[in-house]
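Troubleshooting: if your tokenizer reports a length mismatch, compare your output against this known-good record of 143 residues.
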Amino acid sequence: MAAVLALRPLRAGIPRIGIKSFRVYGAIRRNFSSYLVSPKELHEALAKNPPSPISPEPRVVPLCASWFLPNDERSGIQTFREQRIPKARFFDLDKVIDKRSPYPHMLPDAKGFAAAMSELGVRKEDAVVVYDSKELGIFSAPA
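Known-good structure output:
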């Protein structure tokens, strides 16, 4: 994994047409030099996470978004279990979708996305780092 994508916290909601604005908090800005994060930067940021999961301080939360085509014998959850970054959570691209859309993998509305993030333990003040499998890193972090 050469680079991963860091999603900084959103203060504003997500409107229908896309992300309204990014607000970078001082604590998050210190963690990463850009939206593309090196493994070294991620490792250092994870080492600085608050020691307690109930701390109100912003955290760096790695999300594994590994996904494979349906005819591939591998699965995202299998890759997550075998190769995950410590303390990562699995972001299931087949589950976090707009269930009303006739198309696969469409982003859910803001309420549905917030519910999925809450289920993963991600808070609005956290910095989320999304990564993919080393074989197919282009899906979650295109440059």
